[in-house]
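We give its fold:
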Amino acid sequence: MNVRVRNYHLDGYGHVNNARYLEFLEEARWAFFEEHGLLSEIDGLMLVVVRTDIRYRRAAVDGDILRFEGRLKELTSRHIILTQNIVLPSGKNAVEAEITLMVVSAESGRSISIPEPLFTLLKQYAEA
């Protein structure tokens, strides 16, 4: 996924606002699930961010085209841990993030184990 930085993404210092990076990372996660046909497997479920570790490395500015990279770092019966990078046109990282997701039942609002069909599909994307 690529995003062109627009002036409304910027803060008063002229670079992308830190909160926008979180939105970009979320959009990239949804794009991943969509591109890999996983959206149907989360029907009736919510993927909830329970932890975000984000490192801001370099500023992105108006006009930059940002590239998004992501990997499934770890998969357990209860957690999905992703690494995500936002890469500047220079090839250097603007942001490095590790995101932990849990599956929550939309019906009960409680966290649940990752359903087997989803777990099996995600497992093929886990880093060795």
User: Anything to note?
Assistant: Residues 104 and 111 are 4 Å apart (CA to CA). Strands lie at 2-4, 45-56, 65-75, 79-87, 93-105, 111-112. The chain has a mean pLDDT of 93.
